[in-house]
Design a protein that fits this description.
This protein is mainly alpha-helical. It has helices at residues 2-15, 21-36, 43-52, 61-82, 89-99, 139-153, 160-177, 184-198, 211-224, 227-258; strands spanning 106-107, 114-115, 127-128, 131-132. The protein has a two-stranded antiparallel ribbon with strand order 1-2.
């Protein structure tokens, strides 16, 4: 399988390199994930913000706050995975609170008040595009079922394809439950990364330029009730990411051997 060969080449290049690629990969995840949700920060602005703490000029403050909070949430997920911490509803809520820490707010509804900055489950009906998500009353039970499924399945998943299938399925399931008033896409993608980091696999990126294809894959998967559609899309994203990384690694290591300079920005 082509993707497996690409994966092996990626790992062999990473092992031969002393650059801190995981950090810059995290920056890439933050940039693309937030861009899908409307952030206008460029790759360079995201890098300078997260690495040098330089706030971009002439950009909405909200977009800066989104990036800072997302990186904190991603680091939280990576630590959980590295320590093999089982998931709980409380952890999912804490993850949501980190993502929405400075951009969330208290929301009033007929069912009562809730606070998106504190990771509260929604108490309202939510829509995205043409999709209306499940009744908020069903959310706690559905999230609990998903958490139990992950905890029972994650250690049993062994090979590259099986692990990523689980990660992509969980991504799809959580974003389809849509448990929160905001941040569901980012949280679902972070939960996908948790499963990948648990097995020390490359963390998947959904590219901002493929945003419409991403939404189409989600819609088609729901419409046809066929998870293979979403898996195929996500594997194309994985292949795209690994191929780009191989090109950068090869360029860097070639430049190092020839004594030429090289500047790497995810």
């Amino acid at each position: 399988m082509k993707l497996l060969k690409i994966k092996e080449k990626y790992f062999s290049l990473i092992e031969a390199d002393d650059f801190d690629y995981p950090k810059f990969n995290q920056f890439a995840i933050v940039h693309h994930s937030n861009s899908i949700e409307g952030s206008t920060l460029t790759k360079e602005e995201t890098y300078l913000l997260l690495e040098e703490h330089l706030t971009p000029k002439n950009k909405p403050l909200e977009h800066t706050l989104m990036a800072v909070d997302h990186l904190a949430a991603l680091k939280f997920v990576v630590t959980l995975a590295e320590e093999k911490t089982p998931l709980t509803i409380e952890i999912i809520k804490e993850l949501s609170a980190l993502v929405m820490k400075t951009t969330g707010s208290e929301i009033s509804s007929m069912a009562g008040n809730f606070d998106s900055s504190k990771g509260d489950f929604r108490k309202v009906t939510v829509r995205a595009g043409t999709t209306t998500f499940m009744d908020y009353k069903k959310v706690p039970e559905r999230v609990s079922e998903l958490v139990d499924y992950i905890n029972k399945t994650i250690a049993k998943s062994e090979d590259f394809i099986e692990i990523n299938n689980l990660a992509f399925d969980v991504h799809f399931q959580l974003v389809s439950i849509h448990p929160f008033a905001d941040g569901n896409g980012r949280i679902s993608r972070l939960l996908m990364n948790y499963i990948q980091q648990y097995h020390k696999l490359p963390l998947s990126v959904v590219y901002k330029e493929d945003k419409q294809d991403y939404f189409n894959a989600l819609q088609e998967t729901r419409k046809k009730e066929d998870i293979i559609i979403f898996r195929k899309f996500m594997f194309t994203q994985t292949e795209k990411f690994l191929t780009e990384q191989i090109e950068e690694l090869t360029k860097k290591q070639t430049s190092k051997k020839t004594g030429k300079g090289f500047s790497f920005l995810f």
